[in-house]
Amino acid sequence: MAIPQGITLDDIHEAAARLDAGASHPFGEPRKYQAVIHGTRYPPKALVGLAARRVLGHDLTPGDFSSGVGPNQAVAVLQSLGVEIVEIGHADPRFPPAAWIFQGNPDHFDIDGYLASTTQITWLANQHRQLMAKGQTVYLWRNSGRGGAIAGVVAVGVIEGDAESRPDHSPAVPYWKDPMVAAAPAFRVPIRVVEVATAKQVLKSKWLEEDPVCHDLPNLRMRQQTNYLVTSSHADRLARLWAKTGRDFDRSDLLLTLAAYAETFGQEVSKLHGSPVSNTALLAGRAVTSIYSKVMNFRALDPRVPGMGQPNTGQPTKDIWNEFWTGSDIDTGALAAAIGSAMEPGTTPASQEALESEVEHTAPEYSAEGRKRLVIHFRIERNRKVVADAKAKWFNANPNLPCCVCGMSFRETYGDIGEGYIEAHHTEPIATLDLPKVPVMDDLVPVCSNCHRMLHRSGSPDHRTLEARLQARSLLDQRHTDPDA
In the chain, how many H helices and how many E strands? Predict the structure, then answer.
C-alpha cells in the first residue's frame, strides 16, 4: 500500500492535533527530518500515516510507505502541501522555545552537590545558544550515569543573561570531576535556580517516557546533547507536573481519581494513552503512575472486589471513598457535582485563559452492559495549540475579534486591556462522546464571555441558535418602540 491520493493540509493539521493529544501510533522517531507546524515539530511519517484516515477510513502502518523525500514518500507529500521540513537538530529563531531542558551527566559533574551549594549557577550552552534569552525557564535534567542515579528533572531555574565564552565560575569548579573542563573557555549561560526537587519531587525519566505529552521530549529521543528546545505543550505539562509531583493529593485530585476508578470498575486498569487513568493524569497535572496507584488504592477500599488493589491507603483517600460510597456503589451523581464545585473558576492554580476550569456534567448513564459510568464533560481548552491557532486566525481576519453571536468586541469596548481577547467555544458537546474528540479549528467559534455562558446554559452548542434568539429579541424590542417597524 502507498500513500493515498487526496490527503489535504487540513488532514495533516488534524493528524498533528491527534499527536498533540497523545494519540498512540506505531511510527518510530524520525532520524533525519521533522515537519514544522505552527512552531511544533512532528515526525513526518506519523503525520502522513494518521492523516490518511479520512481518505482510507483507517491509519496507515509503518510498512505501508516510506518516510523519505522521493516520490510519494512522507517528506515529499508534506512538502507538496506546503508543510515546512527541517533537519533534526535545526534551530529556527522564528520559534523561540517555550522552555529548555539542560542536561548533565553525574559521571562528569556533581550536579546534586552544585545545586545544594548555590542558587546562582552556570550551564554549558552547547546547542541553540542564539535562542537563549533572559527570563526563559530551564528544567535541569540529571542523567543516571554509571552510578545509577534516578534520571529526570531535578531542578527548575530561570536564565539570567546571555551565553558567553568563559571558564566556569568559581562555585562550580569543585564539582567538576576533571578540573581542566572547568578551566577551559566554553559558552556558558547564567541561571538562577528557583527550586531544587526533593527525592520525592524528581520528575523521573521513566514516568515521562510513558506520559501522554512528554513521552517524546527531545532529550528522550536524542540523549547526547546538553541543551534541548522544549515546545509549549511540553513546557505546559512539565510545569504542571513540577507543581504537583511529590505533593499530597488535594481534594480535586482525589475526586478526579475516584471518577477514573468508577469508569474503570470491572475492567483492567490501563495506563495507556487515552485511558481514564492517562486522561485524569493530564487533568490533575500528575504522573500517570501516580494516578494509577491512587486508582488501585480506591480498588483496595471497594468491598465489591475484596483483596484487590493496593492497600496502605491514606486517611484523605479513605475519607473521599466514604463520602461517595453508598454501601453498594459509588454515588456518581454526587461525585460529578463535587468535581464541579472543586473545579469552579478561581479555585485552581491555572489561569482561566491557560486552562478553563469550568466543569460541566451530565447525569450518570448506563452503558449497553448495564454498567454505570460517570460521564463528565470537562470543558477545558482541550488542545491549547488548536485554540491558539484558531484565535490567531480570527485575529488576522479581524483584529477586533468580535463575538460571532452578538458582535461584541473586547478591544472596542475596553480598549487596550481587551486587545487580543476572545473566548473559544467548542461546537460539539463532548459530554455525549465516549472518548474525547481531538478538536480542529473548524470545531471552534469566537464568542464573548456572556454568550459563552449562555450557550452552555441553553443546552445547545450551536451558536447560530443563540444568535437567532438575540435577533428575534432585537426585532421584538424594535416593534415595542416603533409600532410601524
Answer: 18, 17
Residue 484, in any domain of the structure: no
Residue in 5, 4, 3 with CA at minimum distance from that of residue 45: 3
- For residue 127 the three cell numbers come to 546547542
Q: Which residues pair with 33 in a beta bridge?
A: 87
Same domain, yes or no: 134 and 15 = no
Instruction: Please check whether residue 371 lies inside any domain of the structure.
Output: yes
Considering the domain architecture, whether residues 231 and 138 belong to the same structural domain is answered as yes
281 domain residue, yes or no = yes
The CA distance from 213 to 240, in Å, is: 12
Q: Are residues 113 and 211 in the same domain?
A: yes
Calculate the alpha carbon distances from 355 to 8, 75, 381 in Å: 30, 34, 6
Q: Are residues 173 and 238 in the same domain?
A: yes
Write down the pLDDT at residue 342. 74
Over the chain (485 residues), what is each successive 10-residue block's mean pLDDT? 90 87 76 78 90 91 87 90 76 64 95 96 92 92 93 96 93 93 93 95 95 89 87 85 94 93 90 88 92 95 92 91 94 83 47 30 30 37 60 84 92 86 75 44 83 77 79 62 52
Q: Are residues 110 and 218 in the same domain?
A: yes
What is the pLDDT, as a whole number, of residue 478?
A: 58
In a domain, 446, yes or no: yes
CB 260 within 8 A of CB 288: no
Q: Give the pLDDT confidence score for residue 382 in this predicted structure.
A: 41
In the chain, the number of structural domains is 4
Last-in-domain residue among 44, 60, 87: 87
Range of the domain at 231: 99-244
pTM: 0.60
Q: Which long-range contacts (CB under 8 A, 24 or more apart) does 53-61 make?
A: 53/11, 53/15, 54/7, 54/11, 54/14, 55/4, 55/5, 55/6, 55/7, 55/11, 56/4, 59/25, 60/1, 60/3, 61/26
pLDDT (tens digit per residue) in 62-85: 889 988 888 889 999 999 999 988
Same domain, 287 and 331: yes
Q: From CA 33, how far away is CA 83, in angstroms rounded?
A: 12
What does the alpha-carbon distance between residue 356 and residue 376 come to, in Å, rounded to a whole number?
A: 15
Question: Quick one: 298 and 328 in the same domain?
Answer: yes
HEC readout, 62-93: HHHCCCCCCCCCHHHHHHHCCCEEEECCCCCC
pLDDT reported for residue 476: 58
320 and 454, same domain (yes or no): no
Alpha helices of 398-430 — where are they, by DSSP H? 410-414
Task: State whether residue 16 is helix, strand or coil.
Answer: helix
Q: Indicate the residue among 244, 272, 291 that finishes a domain.
A: 244
d(CA 153, CA 203): 5
What is the pLDDT at residue 235? 87
